[in-house]
């Protein structure tokens, strides 16, 4: 565990233009949105870049008053983006601003940074960007939290579970009213959101991606069997519309090193209205993975499905979550403990599609990661794992 690492600026940013813009920016500036609790920085004395943020370059700034800020920008101008949805910093800005507004009236609060401004004028620095507070927290990359005592680990996980519950307890319909329709078109038809289910929508999307990718590389084994089983057993969405983070994992949380509590939830660009089972299965997935698979991601670990303590820990966290959130008072089967295996199988399918996509990019010669070849070969293994769970449920 450590504080997020900083380096000299690697991805260019026009600091002179940025300084001129910030010196004069106001709510009347063109293509500029000011946060609801904004304190706009005017003069920067320090500029660095975080080692994370490969998708959207992320920078650290300090102003003349010693205040610290983070700037996130798109990797290229809008016209050159291959996938606009994968770099939606605008959506991230408005979601963070909306959550901060709702936090004022919530018992369970979602710890997110204050956002100060969004600039959609690419003439300023060449990219859409936004500025938020820097959160002074540590990152943890292994959910087993090696090196922590039993008591410390317990404190971390109490805060993790209450934070996930806080996200899922937000008043989604109030949040939608705070979001600009042009950036959130999929949220505008509330009746449609209530009449379809998250898993139906996701299987439709993943099936389309799988079909396209399979033109270039081998298809995912058992794809039809896995998707049919998920659709047959998937629950309806909770009675109340629910915001899900969409990429919830331990390295997207920041922790206060003294209190062990979550002090920041990062990377909201994939958030959507959906079923909270996905966030839980995504976060707790390593405790259900085989240890051999976990060891590809963290150096040494005892975490995994072969370890009875790991399995018991997983189900204890699901029960702790249920103390905060009830998905449907009239349907006790819509419960994270009862639905865990379905959530995990869906998570495996999603990873299959991601792995197949990496395989396609490796074949086409445009994979960016040094580990791409290893991940490209994972989807047949992941598909076999999913089928093992399905067959065990018969």
Automatic annotation (TrEMBL):
GO molecular function, one term: ATP binding
Matching PROSITE patterns: PROTEIN_KINASE_DOM (PS50011), PROTEIN_KINASE_ST (PS00108)
Superkingdom, natural source: Eukaryota
Family annotation (Gene3D superfamilies): 3.90.1200.10, Phosphorylase Kinase, domain 1 (3.30.200.20)
Pfam families: APH
Protein kinase domain mapped to chain residues: 44-394
Protein name: Protein kinase domain-containing protein
């Amino acid at each position: 565990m450590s504080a997020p690492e900083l380096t000299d600026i690697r991805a260019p940013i026009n600091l002179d233009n940025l300084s001129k813009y910030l010196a004069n920016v106001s709510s009347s500036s063109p293509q500029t949105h000011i946060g609801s609790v904004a304190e706009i920085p005017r003069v920067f004395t320090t500029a660095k870049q975080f080692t994370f943020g490969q998708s959207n370059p992320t920078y650290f700034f300090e102003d003349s008053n010693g205040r610290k800020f983070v700037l996130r920008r798109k990797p290229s101008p809008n016209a050159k983006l291959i996938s606009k949805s994968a770099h939606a910093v605008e959506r991230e800005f408005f979601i963070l601003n909306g959550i901060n507004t709702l936090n004022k009236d919530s018992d369970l609060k979602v710890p997110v940074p204050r956002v100060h401004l969004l600039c959609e004028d690419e003439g300023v620095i060449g990219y859409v960007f936004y500025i938020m507070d820097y959160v002074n927290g540590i990152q943890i990359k292994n959910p087993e939290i090696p090196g922590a005592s039993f008591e410390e680990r317990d404190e971390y996980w109490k805060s993790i579970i209450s934070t996930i519950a806080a996200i899922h307890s937000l008043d989604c319909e109030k949040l939608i009213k705070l979001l600009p329709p042009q950036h959130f078109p999929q949220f505008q038809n509330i009746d449609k959101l209530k009449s379809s289910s998250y898993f139906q929508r996701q299987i439709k999307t993943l099936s389309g991606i799988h079909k396209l990718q399979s033109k270039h590389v081998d298809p995912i084994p058992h794809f039809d069997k896995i998707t049919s089983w998920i659709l047959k057993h998937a629950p309806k969405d909770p009675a109340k519309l629910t915001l899900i983070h969409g990429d919830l994992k331990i390295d997207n949380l920041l922790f206060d090193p003294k209190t062990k509590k979550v002090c920041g939830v990062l990377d909201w660009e994939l958030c959507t209205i959906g079923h909270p089972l996905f966030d839980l299965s995504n976060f707790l997935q390593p405790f259900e993975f085989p240890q051999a698979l976990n060891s590809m991601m963290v150096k040494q670990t005892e975490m995994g499905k072969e370890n009875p303590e790991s399995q018991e820990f997983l189900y204890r966290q699901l029960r702790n979550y249920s103390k905060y959130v009830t998905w449907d008072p009239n349907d006790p089967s819509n419960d994270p403990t009862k639905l865990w295996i379905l959530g995990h199988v869906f998570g495996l399918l999603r990873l299959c599609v991601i792995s197949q996509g990496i395989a396609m990019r490796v074949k086409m010669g445009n994979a960016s990661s040094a580990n791409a070849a290893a991940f490209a070969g994972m989807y047949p293994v992941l598909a076999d794992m999913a089928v093992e769970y399905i067959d065990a449920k018969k």
